[in-house]
Each structure stands twice: as C-alpha cells, then as structure tokens.
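Hypothesis: this fold can be encoded by more than one sequence.
Test: take the structure tokens below, design a sequence, compare later.
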C-alpha cells in the first residue's frame, strides 16, 4: 500500500493556499479541506442571523448557536473540488464576498468556534492522505504533519490578487478596500490569543510574491516527494 501523509498548508490571507492545496490533492488523489471555508461559513451564519455587523458582535449568542451549525463539503465533479455547504445549502459563492472577508477574522478569534472546527478538521484527517490549508493547521490541527508549508507574500501583492479575483467575479470593490481588508486580517490573525497565525518551527516557508502557480506547484511537489520517501 502506498504511503500516505498529511500535508498542512498555512499562511496569510490571499497567498493562494487553497489553489495550491487543490492542485496537490488532485495530483496525489488526496482529500482536500479548505478550513477557511469553514470559518467563512460560520461567519455567514452569524451575519444571516444578525449576530455580527460593523458596529457590534454578539459572541455569546453565536457560541450558544454553534450546535445548530452543520458544515459539510460536497464534491462537485464539474468543478473538480468540494464546495462548502451550510445547513444543507451550498454557500460557496456567498462565503467568498468581501463582506464575509471583513468579519471572518473576528469570528475565527472566538475560542469556542475554533474548538468546534478543529475537532471536525482532526477527524477528517485521521486516516492521512489529506491536504488541509488554513492558519493553524501545522501548529494546532496537525502538529505532527509530515509536511508543513507556510505561505507568504507582500500585502500589496496579495491585495492585487484578491482584487483581480473579485473583479472577475463581477463584485464591485476598490483596490484600497481590499488592501485594507488584507492588512486588517493580517493583524487580527497574528495577534489573536487563541491559535494565532504563526509559522511552525518545522514548516518550510515559501514567499510566492514572484512565483507563478506552476513554479510554486512544482517546488512543493518536490517537497512532497521527499516526504513520501522518508
């Protein structure tokens, strides 16, 4: 039986973690889990129910409502990857908006939310053969992962990528708005008390500011091959 490993990909927002993780999972025949989508789905739930807005955040009610949140990934063969479902509804499009992006880091700060999602994530990867991306995969979710990647790029590079992506989807945003969102999320992600974004001691850092997707994939695939041969 071919050896299977756990691949943990962490890093700042809009560094292309999900794109790389999808490429690797497809190439290796592994399960892909986008943990960011899980936090975004909880954020969407909070927004839909009036628990969070620009001037308030009712954490207590959200925490008490976690039992009513059912998250699942359903594979879409037409797209080649799994989409996020919240309480039985496909929310893949809704969770990618700038409005959700503006609140997701605040939701991810809540310890009870993190505990609920980390438990689910660890269960998903108990048999290995998984590629998971997020903020604390190599440090909290899978501290014993055979391969840990930490991705970074300049905030301006990441904002431009995110801006282009949102424009292509027809969403009306400005570059300055996206840059503010990226920098704000960076601060919250790295300064929260519970599981802040940090590079695991044994993670390999990749700055992809000047790398194409193909160059990045080839470099990481070489690292995967080394891990499989250990």
């Amino acid at each position: 039986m071919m050896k299977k490993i756990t691949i943990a990909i962490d890093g700042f927002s809009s560094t292309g973690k999900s794109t790389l993780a999808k490429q690797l999972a497809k190439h290796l025949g592994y399960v892909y889990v986008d943990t960011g989508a899980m936090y975004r789905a909880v954020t969407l739930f909070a927004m839909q129910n009036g628990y969070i807005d620009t001037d308030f955040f009712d954490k207590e009610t959200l925490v008490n409502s976690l039992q009513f949140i059912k998250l699942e990934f359903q594979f879409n063969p037409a797209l080649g990857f799994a989409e996020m479902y919240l309480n039985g509804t496909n929310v893949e499009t809704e969770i990618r908006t700038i409005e959700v992006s503006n609140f997701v880091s605040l939701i991810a700060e809540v310890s009870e939310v993190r505990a609920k999602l980390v438990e689910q994530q660890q269960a998903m990867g108990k048999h290995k053969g998984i590629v998971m991306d997020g903020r604390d995969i190599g440090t909290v979710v899978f501290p014993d992962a055979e391969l840990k990647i930490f991705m970074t790029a300049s905030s301006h590079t990441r904002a431009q990528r995110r801006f282009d992506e949102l424009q292509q989807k027809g969403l009306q945003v400005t570059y300055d708005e996206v840059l503010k969102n990226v920098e704000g999320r960076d601060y919250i992600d790295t300064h929260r008390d519970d599981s802040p974004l940090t590079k695991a001691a044994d993670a390999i850092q990749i700055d992809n500011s000047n790398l194409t997707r193909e160059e990045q994939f080839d470099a990481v695939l070489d690292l995967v091959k080394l891990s499989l041969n250990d």
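Strands lie at 6-11, 31-34, 52-53, 56-57, 71-76, 81-86, 89-90, 130-134, 147-152, 204-207. The first strand starts at residue 6 and ends at 11.
Hypothesis status: open.
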